[in-house]
Amino acid sequence: MTAPQVSNASRIRQARRDSLRELLSTQGHEQHVLVLLGKLEDLSAELDSVEYQRIKAVIDTKMKLINKYLPDDKEPQDLNIGNQDEGAFKIQEVRRTIVDSES
């Protein structure tokens, strides 16, 4: 694969993430989860067991939906494999290994 293809694939992947993020935002899943959490935090209103289980199920389901379509990013975003832009490559981690010369 050449560098521009990697760059194009990366741009397409980011565009899909952005559109899914916008869709989930407009559907209000995050806001609804926050409202339900507010109900659970409110100590003045008592909830029976069934109400608590229903609220918990809705929160869990919405969080699974959000996490499915918006997983945590595990790949570095600023990595420029083709080195088209100077300075786009950033070091994420430096490891040092100490080796015992006797072994």
Topology:
Elements: H1 3-27, H2 29-41, H3 49-69
Put the structure in a nutshell.
It contains 3 helices and no strands. With 103 residues, it is mainly α.
Labels describing this entry:
mainly alpha; 103 residues; 3 helices; single chain
Write structural notes for this entry.
This protein is an all-alpha fold and 103 residues long. It has a domain at 3-69. It has helices spanning 3-27, 29-41, 49-69. Helix 2 packs antiparallel against helix 3 (49-69). The protein is flat and about 65 Å long. 0% of the residues are buried.
Major β-sheet annotation: none
Specify the number of helices.
Answer: 3
The total strand number stands at 0
Percent range for helical residues? 55-70%
In what range is the share of β-strand residues?
under 5%
Poorly predicted segments: none
What value does the Rg take, in angstroms?
22 Å
Mean pLDDT: 75
* SSE arrangement, N to C: HHH
Separation of the first and last Cα atoms: 41 Å
Categorize the overall geometry.
Answer: flat
Looking at the chains present, what oligomeric state does this protein adopt?
single chain
Briefly note the structural class of the backbone: mainly alpha
